[in-house]
Amino acid sequence: MLCLGFAPLLALVLGASLGAAFPQDVLKKSCSLSKYQFPVPHELKAVQKMKTQFEAIMHQSNRKCNTRLFHRKWNPAELSVHDRMMLVEAELDLATTMLGLSTAPRFAETRQQPLAFLTQAREDLRGCLAMEDHSHQPSGKLRHWLQKLQVAKDTETTGCLEASVILHLFQVLNDLRCTALREQCT
């Protein structure tokens, strides 16, 4: 016969009872994107510096791109909060991928701080999405944009995707800010 002492048995019973008393969602890490509501000025300056330097490089190379990925006929404020989170995650994923691939030696150092900031934002947002309802289906607007994003990834040159991302980084940051506020922004 198995003989357990009173203290270990009590600990076992209490542990099982407390585990059942608290829903698993309470035990999960909380989702907080509040630090993206108002990014610190040095992060915004780093993004602006990178954008300015990139525009100068692009002007010198006379690169012409027709990527209109960030030209949408709808405003992200029209989306549900969950759809906005999915939109911003896709935007941040594209941005971090393109900044991570950049091979222009003169541009390598300038992109490091924005890349680190955007990578952290993407990871924080993914953490929040992991806590959300996994059965959520994106709206038609978002689904269409995600398809447009996939087509652009498959058909556009890396240089054009990089240019589109960098030239629209402040739009991505505004979408992130509005998602962090969890309210309607314009």
TrEMBL record:
Keyword Secreted part of the UniProt annotation: yes
Any Gene Ontology CC annotation: extracellular space
Compartment list: Secreted
A molecular function GO annotation: cytokine activity
GO process annotations (BP): cell surface receptor signaling pathway via JAK-STAT; defense response to virus; innate immune response; positive regulation of immune response
DNA-binding as UniProt keyword: no
InterPro entries xref list: IFN-lambda_sf, INF_lambda
Secretion signal span: 1-23
Keywords of this entry: Antiviral defense, Cytokine, Secreted, Signal
Family, similarity comment: Belongs to the lambda interferon family.
Name the record gives this protein: IFNL3 protein
Gene that encodes the chain: Ifnl3
